[in-house]
Amino acid sequence: MASLRELQRSFAAALRDPAVACAVLPPANLAVYRNNASITFRETLERTFPVVHRRVGEDYFRQLAAHYRQRFPSRHGDLHWVGRDFATFLHEHLAGTDYAWLADLAQLEWLRTESAVAAELRPIGAEALASIAPEALERLKFGLQPSVRLFSSPFPVFSVWEANQAEIAPPVDQSMGPEAGMTLQRRGFPEVRKLDAAAVSFLSSLQSGFTLGDAVSSAGLDGQALTRLLAMLFAEELVGSLGE
To answer: Which of 44, 137, 180, 199 has the fewest CB atoms within 10 Å, i.e. is most exposed?
Structure first.
């Protein structure tokens, strides 16, 4: 007699592949579960990657979802995590084609999804710097909000994402080249921000635990650029903690 674990594995495999026999249900009954599981999986991907879905169209997205599900079946009870490996799948599936940029677009949308469920700390304002001695500023460490996700791409995927927030979105010229930016959560809503490369380098260093002085050196910032980025940090409420 098969163990419970073996029955569960049989049922899960049969949900993804009609050729696999299932010891739990007859084929007619199993078809209902298989159809529901397939639709739920695909619709979850569509909600997680709405811009990718829009750019490739309904038919091709269905094909991608089916191939992806075979390679990366859901292993989590929460549907939120269904798309965790979709960007990796597209990177492999579309490598060497004119559509390789879609993998980076998917990565941007996934980072936005991660930001949506991250903790949101009470932001620290710029006035907190007033109590710190000037000579101690370069040793200061900035803890960014847990929802901040930084991303750099050789493709203009931030522009693609922004353009597709409108009802009618024209194609984005891929010759625009590399873009960088971040996703974050603001008051319970995930947002996308396009940033210049220096800003992403600076924020990445801070996120990695660099002191302010080391982050400035790593990003190659002058005084004017530092002032601009510090103002952005506090205006965007990105600072969750300060310390040495």
So the answer is: 137
User: What's the CA dihedral at 80, 81, 87, 89 to 10 degrees?
Assistant: -130
More confident residue, 207 or 175: 207
* CA distance readout (Å), 154 to 115, 148, 151: 22, 20, 10
Q: Which residue has the higher pLDDT, 210 or 23?
A: 210
| Separation CA 131–CA 156 (nearest Å) | 41
Token look-up 């029955």 returns: 7
Cα within 13 Å of Cα(96), Cβ side:
2
Are the CB atoms for 141 and 242 separated by under 8 Å?
yes
Residue 96, by phi and psi: left (phi above 0), alpha (psi -120 to 50) or beta? left
Instruction: Please state which of the ranges 9-23, 61-75, 200-214 shows the lowest mean pLDDT.
Output: 9-23
Q: What is the CA radius of gyration of the chain?
A: 22
Identify the CA nearest to 180 among candidates 163, 203, 164, 212. Answer: 203
User: What span, in angstroms and rounded, lies between the C-alpha atoms of 22 and 30?
Assistant: 8
Nearest to 42 by CA among 17, 25, 59: 59
Residue 1 has pLDDT above 60, yes or no: no
Reported as half-sphere exposure (CB side, CA atoms, 13 A), residue 160 has a value of 32
Percentage of the chain surpassing pLDDT 90? 64
What pTM does this model have? 0.85
